[in-house]
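Lecture notes, unit on binding sites. The following record was shown on slide 14. It pairs a sequence with flavin mononucleotide.
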Amino acid sequence: MDILEAIKARHSVRRFTGKKIEGEVKEALLRAIDECNEESGLNFQLCLNEPNAFKSRFFHYGTFKNCKDYIALIGPKGMDEKYGYYGQKVVLKAQQLGLNSCWVGLTYNKFKIPCIIGKGESIRLVIALGYGKTQGRARKSKDIMKLCKVDGDMPDWFKKGMEAATLAPTALNQQRFLMILNGTTVTAKALPAPYSKVDLGIVKYHFEIGAGKQNFNWG
Ligand SMILES: Cc1cc2nc3c(=O)[nH]c(=O)nc-3n(C[C@H](O)[C@H](O)[C@H](O)COP(=O)(O)O)c2cc1C
């Protein structure tokens, strides 16, 4: 599965089979996390066989079944876009490895997570992982034209970038972002909403893959 196929195949999955993440899949996941940490300065940590973070029956929305594996996204405050960008890099890698996932900002128990958290760091979000009971399903998306501003004709690379951006997961599927094209410069804006800066990082990662990094610069 190439990365564009992974973008198309990925949907949030909250029910897992309980099959363990091990062997080569585990090793490849750890390598992807190490790479992201090195590039970003964040401190993502893989937690395996830890059933407590998703035990709660408190939440109506976002209930997880059989979720014992996840990545804790740990680091300093004020880095939301980076959490999104690098977190999604790991999400798509996981999809390519045959795993399913779901971003989780709220519906988990932060206090049960057994990670080592450095000075000035905290757990910002987690990414639930595992072998899904299903592959999830496609959800509604806003129209591309409502998510961008383009003067004149829309170049093909920009359209492909927008198509990938609309497939990006956002908190509550809110899609509160705007991409503005000016020549070959694309300015990405997060509109006011909870987690919209994390969403923006996720969206920018998808956009780069769809559009091709060589075709534009971020403004
Ligand atoms: C930053 C962020 C936070 C999220 N928080 C939660 C959460 O707390 N609980 C949950 O069940 N899903 C959560 N989600 C998953 C979204 O509801 C889901 O991505 C969105 O509805 C789009 O669906 P899709 O991922 O299948 O494309 C979150 C997603 C993002 C990007």
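Take-home: The domain at 3-130 is CATH 3.40.109.10 (NADH Oxidase).
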